[in-house]
Design brief:
The protein is of the alpha+beta class. The chain folds into two domains: 3-134 and 311-336, Aminopeptidase, CATH 3.40.630.30; 138-309, Gcn5-related N-acetyltransferase (GNAT) (Aminopeptidase), CATH 3.40.630. The chain contains eleven helices and 15 strands. The protein has helices at residues 10-18, 29-37, 83-100, 115-123, 148-153, 157-168, 182-196, 203-214, 260-272, 294-301, 320-336; strands spanning 3-6, 41-49, 52-64, 67-73, 77-78, 104-108, 127-128, 137-142, 172-176, 219-226, 229-239, 242-250, 277-282, 306-309, 314-317. The strands form two sheets. Strands 1, 2, 3, 4, 5, 6, 7 and 15 form an eight-stranded mixed sheet that branches. A seven-stranded mixed sheet has the order 9-10-11-12-13-8-14. A hairpin with a 2-residue loop joins β3 (52-64) and β4 (67-73). It is globular, with a radius of gyration of 20 Å.
């Protein structure tokens, strides 16, 4: 029989998470702090079997205009994905939703997509959420026992060419974890938003994300420079065994192929830090050229790696008649964005 306890010891938590084969920074202590700083609440629980820690889950109480809900991002994480562990979590999650009197609960598992998991969620009363909350198709580059030469050889030919051309043309990359340099990133970010018309994160969101991970040197900006001008910027988070490319921006007046060198420097930094994988974050779920993420996905795939598909976000409605209009609203937003 599993037992649940709150965990407030960061060392115990991080040690467990870093040994789970698939994990992201969405299940870190820092992400819990970040959510608190943007106005939400979070709790960190451990699942114990015979007094041994076998799983953890971060649960965030999201205070959204459309309705308050509980959210588990890229989790829970278990030592082994036993069906009884998952069934226990889902019942626990529903009970938490009832106790908190939220409209619904939502989970975006870092769990490989297959029919068995879909059946498990359905049996517990969950349904596919109308939108995704976390990256559900990610592009991940394995760094284990690979030299820089090998990583370069496994890239697409055009990607290698762009990296070498940038070096030849004296593009440089500045690495920084100084909060003051975040202003440079945000300036490019706003230009990117106006050029591509995607739905951006707020400045507060990005600043709080940076601050949450900068405390322990877990975030770095990679600013690509040419002719005394910053032409691209990445924000990469280092957590557990992975590096995660979570935010990016480019200068609309620069070369169309800028940021190849910045990505390469971020990958090398990940290797130096002992990371075993580099997560390029979300890509389009298919290779459809009409998908709004097609170009960005093609860029990421050029560095080598593989696609990892996670189970789609799952919802359980606590208050159905309040959940229904939320479901319809989120469905309309997804269709409008062509996602």
């Amino acid at each position: 029989m599993l037992k649940v306890k709150l965990i407030e010891d960061k060392k115990i938590w991080d040690e467990f998470v870093s040994h789970v084969s698939i994990h992201t920074f969405f299940h870190s202590f820092e992400w819990a702090d970040f959510n608190k700083n943007i106005g939400d609440q979070s709790e960190k629980y451990g699942f114990f079997e015979d007094n041994k820690l076998v799983g953890v889950t971060l649960i965030i109480k999201v205070f959204a205009k459309r309705g308050t809900f509980l959210f588990c991002p890229h989790g829970p994480l278990f030592k082994s994905d036993k069906i009884n562990y998952w069934n226990f979590f889902l019942k626990f999650f529903i009970q938490k939703g009832l106790e908190e009197k939220v409209v619904f609960v939502r989970v975006s598992p870092a769990l490989a997509e297959d029919n068995k998991t879909q059946i498990m969620f359905k049996k517990n009363g969950f349904r596919n959420a109308p939108i995704h909350m976390s990256a559900e198709s990610s592009w991940i580059l394995d760094l284990v026992d690979k030299s820089e030469d090998q990583l370069l050889s496994e890239m697409r030919k055009t990607t290698r060419y762009e990296i070498r051309q940038a070096q030849k043309r004296e593009y440089t990359v500045i690495k920084s974890n100084d909060f003051k340099d975040l202003k440079i990133f945000l300036k490019l970010y706003h230009q990117t938003v106006s050029r591509t018309n995607f739905i951006p994160f707020s400045d507060k969101y990005i600043m709080e994300e940076f601050l949450a991970f900068s405390k322990n040197n877990q975030v770095m900006l990679f600013l690509e420079k040419h002719d005394n001008k910053i032409v691209a910027a990445l924000m990469v988070i280092f957590y557990g065994k992975g590096a995660f490319y979570h935010q990016g921006a480019t200068n609309p007046t620069g070369r169309e192929t800028v940021s190849y060198l910045a990505q390469w420097e971020a990958i090398k930094e990940a290797k130096q830090r002992g990371c075993t994988f580099y997560n390029f974050w979300g890509i389009a779920p298919t290779d459809d050229p009409k998908h709004p993420w097609y170009g960005l996905s093609l860029f990421k795939k050029g560095f080598g790696g593989k696609r990892v598909n996670f189970v789609h976000a799952q919802d359980y409605s606590i208050k159905f008649w309040r959940y229904l209009p939320i479901y319809l609203l989120e469905t309309m937003r997804r269709l409008k964005r062509n996602l």
